[in-house]
Protein 1
Amino acid sequence: MHMTTAEIREAFLEYFRKEGHEVVPSSSLVPHNDPTLLFTNAGMNQFKDCFLGAEQRSYVRATSAQRCVRAGGKHNDLENVGFTARHHTFFEMLGNFSFGDYFKHDAIRYAWTFLTEVLQLPKEKLCVTVYQSDDEAYDIWAKEIGVAPENIIRIGDKPGKPAYTSDNFWQMGDTGPCGPCTEIFYDHGEGIWGGRPGTPEEDGDRFIEIWNIVFMQFNRHADGTMEPLPKPSVDTGMGIERVAAIMQGGHSNYDIDVFQRLIKAAAEVTGATDLDNKSLRVVADHIRSCAYLIVDGVMPSNEGRGYVLRRIIRRAIRHGRKLGATDTFFYKLVGELADVMGSAAVELKQQQAMVEKVLKIEEENFARTLDRGIALLTDALDSLAGKELDGETVFKLYDTFGFPADLTNDVARERGFTIDEAGFEAAMEAQRQRAREAGQFSADYSKVLTIEGSTIFTGYDRDQDSAVIQ
Ligand code: ATP
Ligand code: MG
Ligand code: MG
Ligand code: MG
């Protein structure tokens, strides 16, 4: 059976709605209830207080298609983009949640029914993991669902490490709700590098994790003891792009409808001809995170969330140059993005002009130093004796040319080099020290522009011209 990404989203929400779940809209990428979290990175974020019992809602079961960004903080997949078939900076997580209502039996049955009956995935392609000591989940899979024992893999703790380092044990923080997970994997078949979960080759792209089901079963206290929760809960997450890859007969997420259209659009605006070029995937990935972050109120800046956004934009622009773009191109993808994201693009459509403007200005600004920075970096790499680029050069690229360190690293990595991150940090610290001694604040030429009543732009790097939109 073939399904579009939009059809999968609809089918998922509809399946869980029929099973008594409230369909809850995606929340913002900027978490409103958790200052410790850089960006929303899972469907459960917006329900955190429901799980903690601090918030009561009119429902005890919910389902959502949550926009997520994993480009910093605890989950950072930025470096994976373009290298694996399955990681994005921005993706949609489909999830179902039980707030002290159903638990393991129903959660596992729902997931299995959705995959094998609604999506009609062949059972023999699926395998599951459970946490080492979670006999209850093991027995549900083996006896109630009928998964063959060789396809149920117990995953333990990492050697010498505490439980939460296991892929199959989840916790909200050092204290609070925690518990075992069960994950469902799809085997994309021989010929693709990778091994079953729990083997040394598991990080390959053959067995791809599609769904994680977390059982919030315990409350961990500060002294490390774990007390069973009186009303255990369920939190699940399934990446829509990974499922779409399967439902559309492909392997890589970049083969799916949404990405193919973005990749074609990116090829058009950059002049690239080889649609398999890795940089096209990077650009197609990055336009999604950048556009949605701006929609959710993040603006390019030199710190915090804004700097993560700036870093992603600059990376995309660098890849665009590599593809042959000679002029600003990135903002031109916003329209296509708004078209392909369907019901997930309501806010993006409303704010399209603003998003384009922010991206365009950011690109024009970076374009002034990009070529000279690339020339300097190329020379430095050409004349490198060893394999590591020194921290001073990385710092100079940052300070004078506006190259975030991860961008420099991205270029270096393409040529088999690494960068001296510690040396870069030391150079940064030395600069901060100089600034402190000179009694300055770290200069900030931020300006705020108001267009049609909404604040849309805060200015530029201290190292760039203090360009301001007029
Ligand atoms: P992986 O091990 O593949 O990195 P994960 O264990 O980090 O995934 P979870 O935190 O369990 O992922 O998130 C739930 C689901 O969200 C995953 O099973 C996967 O389908 C999807 N997902 C996670 N990270 C990404 C990403 N960077 N891009 C696309 N989908 C993702
Ligand atoms: Mg991960
Ligand atoms: Mg995983
Ligand atoms: Mg997981």
Protein 2
Amino acid sequence: ALDIGHDLGTAILNVRAFEREHRLVKELQALDQYKGQLIATLAHELKNPLTSIVGYLEMLEGEDVHGAVEQALSAMDRGARRMVRVIDDLLLLSKVGDPGNPVIPQPVDLGAVAADVIDLTSVAAQKRSISVHVEAPAYPVLASGDPDELDRVLSNLVSNAVKYSDPGRSVALRLAQDGEEVVVECCDEGFGISAEDQEKLFTEFFRSTNPVAVAQPGTGLGLAIVARIVARHGGRIELDSELGRGSTFRVRLPAATSFPTGG
Ligand code: ADP
């Protein structure tokens, strides 16, 4: 009887510990949701006045101004546009981090997404004399996910590859199916990323201390967005990179349908 009492006592303690843990998890989830909502609200609040500033700056662009005024206007225009980029990225970050807004998966033809991304980044690539090409199999590579979000993943990776490479280098976007998964590889021959930087790469606002990389424009939010999108699709990211040699970002996503291989 004593033993039963002891076991019962232990069981009750276990249940209480479990309940406490469960409560803590719920509290953390609520906090996380609150944080996400706060960021979204903040971003909206900042965006409205900023949109009016950008509008007035655009209006002044056609005016006949010179010297200091022209310089000031141009600096304000650059600053305001940068803020718009940060705010848009923050809004997207909070959207793709919101567990109340899950992905509604559909088959996404990554070949079409890749073609769109090449189009989208072609001006930036040309400016830096970087050639970007797609390597895809003859069969369609179909991921299961949200087309806009997957477009964003590929375009962030390609635009980074372009930004963080020396002129004359090339970038390859490779697509393949691997069993139940599809694989997208973005390979560059660029600056590469140090082992130290690799650890913080997917953190919000992280930018490398590498002076050549910092010279490129950016918000430090791109890879944080990529990581969240890939995670909420049930995928994962791998990175092979060596300083001075280049980087390969490999994204694995669930495939929409499995094709028989070797047939
Ligand atoms: P951003 O490009 O706006 O700074 P990201 O989150 O996209 O922000 O990238 C974070 C940092 O990671 C960049 O500032 C850059 O230093 C580094 N990085 C990203 N992609 C590459 C790449 N392909 N090659 C070298 N460095 C990269």
